[in-house]
Amino acid sequence: MSTINPVVSLLVFFSLTILLYYVFRPTKGIYFLLKKNYKSKTKTIIEDILKLLYHNQVSNKNLTTNDLTDKLNYNNQLLIESISKMIENELIYMENDSFRLTELGNEYALQIVRAHRLWEKFLSEKTGFDKKEWHERAERKEHELSVDETNKLSELLGDPKYDPHGDPIPTKTGKVAPKKGVSLSELSVGAVGRIIHIEDEPEIIYKQILAEKIHLDSQIRVVENNRMRVVFHSEGEKFVLAPVVAGNITVLVLENQAVSEENIMRLSSLQENEVAKIIGLSKECRGENRRRLLDLGFVRGAIVEVDLRNPLKDPTAFLIKGTSIALRENQASKILIKKE
Amino acid sequence: MEKQTKSACETCSHYNAEGLKKLGVNTESFDFVVALAGNPNTGKSTVFNALTGLRQHTGNWPGKTVARAEGAFEYNAQKYKLVDLPGTYSLLSTSEDEEVARDFILFGKPTLTVIVVDASRLERNLNLVLQILEITDHAILCLNLMDEAKRNHIEVDARILAKDLGIPVVATSARFKEGIPELLKTISDLANRKITCKPHKIKNIPKNIEKAVEELSTSIKKEYPTIANSRWLAFRLLEGDKQVIEGLRTGKFV
Amino acid sequence: MSTKNIEHIIELSKDLRWQIGDDFHDVLSESIYAEASKIVESSVKKDDQKRRFRIDAQIDKIVTSKVWGFPIMLLLLGVVLWLTIIGANYPSSMLASLLLDMIHPMLKNGANFLDFPWWLSGFLIDGVYLAVAWVIAVMLPPMAIFFPLFTLLEDFGYLPRVAFNMDALFKKSGAHGKQALTMSMGFGCNAAGVVATRIIDSPRERLIAIITNNFSLCNGRWPTQILLATIFIGAVVPESYSSLASLSAVIGIAVLGIFFMFFFSWALSKTVLKGEVSTFNLELPPYRPPVFWKTIYTSLIDRTLIVLWRAIVFAAPAGAVIWLICNIYIGSESIAAWLVHSLDGFGFLLGLNGVVLLAYIVAIPANEIVIPTILMLTVMVVGIGGGAGAGVMFELDSVTATGDVLKAGGWTLLTAVNVMLFSLLHNPCSTTIYTIYKETKSKKWTTIASILPVIAGFVVTFLVAQVWRIFS
């Protein structure tokens, strides 16, 4: 039997591994790029342009051809072709060098937005994908869902009104609930409000918000706001954000100071020998996880205390309705309590 | 809740057998089918073993019996088939165990359901009991682990509990075979309909939801006049339970 | 009744659902619990407000304490494994002498007496019977010791505390703390470990536990590890250290398995399984003294015998196949010899040989018959004396004799190390594969669970072989 030089075989092995890695690595691999390119036909481009125009029209910004080529990551040639096709099909029209949506274009754009937000809702309720992935996955899925499929999806989810970031989902007939609230960075010191929306774009900022563990629907009170930083209290914790980051959080100001519930805190901060009453579950606790916690008795009004601390800190066992149930820190932080 | 009048067909054993057969239960040569439900870790399988003499393994674990276990026993010359359902905390979510347990009580329509609860954790266990009582009218509460409750200085008044829940309550310590004869007798009495149940229904639901439930359940009853658990079906419909919707369409409940 | 009215009800439910809003489930759960509290208020009297029973709390304080939690855990696992491996030796050798040394010749004589043709008695007695006998002799005693011990700990209520203690480690690799237990169960038998994953009610974590269970070195593989470590690894160090060296090698392999379990749990949760729903909850039930004899009895019936039965069902045809490939000739070579030669090249690349690879292919049904098959094939291929005939699996009484046969078959220290690695990292036995399919009901996950460890095994043995050759 012939012997094979070990160095040669190792070299062959590693070059094969590297080759496979470059071909198949997630999102940047050649295989995925090819797949994406193959798919990103005119339909995707058109839909992306429509969406961009829609979002800018909502915030009253005008877009020129240059803006489009800047903001969309497509080959310029393809973009120009798509634009002329869209004008031809009466989806958009030109007005003072910038593009506007026609009635038809607006309808189409709303359908894409609806598909996108419903898919995010689906991912948050029925799958285990991480928050960070929802947006990107919905960006791809929105082009694949037909109107019929979108409606079925909506039905499956019980026709939800808001997506998991707090954005309104357009209805079948194209109605959109108006956006409310102001940016967190614009609030003055002492203002009390409730977080109603966390923007998921751009990704860098969104990841920072997620890392801070700021929860949607939580009540906040601003204690400091200047050019350097925005500081606020929420659910018994203190948060410090850069103004740019705070700018991506929308808050509904609560005029009535009396509703302020300063002594609400998270179950994760309960200490041994303290007793607390559960106020409710945070909106951030979703899907199967939420139902499980409710089944286990983590419902409003239940009395809870720490039963056992873990030698490795996480999880913690809580005594609730006569039984010791262990929860991880990220679950306990989504259960709101008030100390007795 | 108004009381339904039962047709002769609905109470005869053949009627039950049809539904059960669909769920893969061999009902031949049995007079009655008894379902055993309860939270995990309430000694449900111990009760099962005490009743049937089978030695099914019972771990000190939540959720041990995933598949259905079946056994049989005879009492006063009548044959009973006992089906041990997976232990669940609730019937409202969508896990596999819960579906098995729910489908059996809902579609299988066993003669009666024995609900095993841990006497020292009654409040937690009642969550499931109240849900089961929404589905079925024929149930017995088996107040198990009385020995443990005593150790923990917890006293449960079975009489008051029976009155509040509207079903027979039997206190047992299945490990020591205490209370099993009483349980057998109660099963036999209820199976032969010598006693009647008037199960407690969930009352304090917020007004707007109660209204919706009422509206739905009325229209279900209009369609299926003999249905006993229209309210529970309404709950499920409001949650968008795919299986219940499908069941309604195919008439699985009738 | 017309379906139209049903559709009307469903439409109505959709409208009402929209009106009520998203929190119907929350409100319903709250209402039911509130009602339960009310009922309890009137019927339950508590003496000692809420506090859990004191002895329970005391035990919990100790078994989850920073100082004692982990030592107690490791000690208990160590004792259970030690009792299993050492304790199983005696009944195993008794069963082996009964089934292999006594009954096997008796059957052969009986077949001769009844004038069976050679191929029929070979097929039935040397093939089917021998494989089954081997599996029973090697598998039954350790399982009959391991499972009852494990079950006693389980019934007492200690195991959920282990899951509680270990959860932080498993969380890092995207798994559930309860996987610590299914993994430990896997040290007894992977098929039983896979069944035990039922205690994990989160879909993603359960799949992770199922797919990675094979990285727990099971009962069928411990003897292989111990035998090879004694022959080859014990020999490279001075004699006074040899048992220490071989012991560390075996433990090292088991620990390596745990490392791979964590690694693949992490990799799976980050890739193919990331979309599966993931939840966490862990109830710490009160301690309950186990009913000793009943526990022993039920664990034997429920776990040991069921797993043993499945193993026998799969081992019997494997025995037949092994006998057939050794006794059917194509030209001048038996199928087995031909297969061994064609697998030799690939085997060399992995630091193994054709015999080992063929043994692992035909011994898919049960890891227990790998060593007997290797010995039989080696004797056949090399053509030395000492075997029991073509297609007849055997084991030698003395470790030295086994070593001599293997060395005659061209085995070096590298071969032994790589066989030990490959024994850890290869496809699950067919009993386990079948169990995985029954538990997941999915061809996809069964395939992944079967192929993933083999690929890992190929890569690891390949790398070890090449690096070894460069430095020697």
UniProtKB/TrEMBL annotation, chain A:
Bilayer-crossing regions: 6-24
Key words of the record: Iron, Membrane, Transmembrane, Transmembrane helix
Residue ranges of every copy of the Ferrous iron transporter FeoA-like domain listed in the record: 182-253, 265-339
Database matches in SUPFAM superfamilies: C-terminal domain of transcriptional repressors, Iron-dependent repressor protein, dimerization domain, Winged helix' DNA-binding domain
Residues covered by region (Disordered): 156-176
Gene3D superfamilies: 2.30.30.90, Winged helix-like DNA-binding domain superfamily/Winged helix DNA-binding domain
Protein name: DtxR family Mn-dependent transcriptional regulator
Compositionally skewed regions (Basic and acidic residues) per UniProt: 156-166
Any one GO molecular function term: transition metal ion binding
InterPro entries: DtxR_MntR_Metal-Reg, Fe-transptr_FeoA-like, Fe_dep_repressor, Fe_dep_repressor_sf, FeoA_core_dom, Iron_dep_repressor, Transcriptional_repressor_C, WH-like_DNA-bd_sf
Automatic annotation (TrEMBL), chain B:
GO terms of molecular function: ferrous iron transmembrane transporter activity; GTP binding
InterPro entries per record: FeoB_Cyto, FeoB_GTPase, G_FEOB_dom, GTP-bd, P-loop_NTPase
Cited Pfam families: FeoB_Cyto (PF17910), FeoB_N (PF02421)
Domain FeoB-type G: 31-193
Any one cellular-component term (Gene Ontology): plasma membrane
Protein name, entry field: Ferrous iron transport protein B
Organism in which the protein naturally occurs: Tenacibaculum caenipelagi
From TrEMBL, chain C:
UniProt GO cellular component terms: plasma membrane
Domain Nucleoside transporter/FeoB GTPase Gate span(s) in chain numbering: 138-226
Spans through the membrane: 67-90, 116-140, 180-200, 220-237, 244-268, 307-330, 342-363, 369-393, 405-425, 445-468
Keywords from the UniProt entry: Membrane, Transmembrane, Transmembrane helix
InterPro entries: Fe2_transport_prot_B_C, FeoB_GTPase, Gate_dom
Molecular function GO terms recorded: ferrous iron transmembrane transporter activity
Residue span(s) of domain Ferrous iron transport protein B C-terminal: 250-298
Official protein name in the record: Ferrous iron transport protein B
Species in which this protein is naturally found: Tenacibaculum caenipelagi
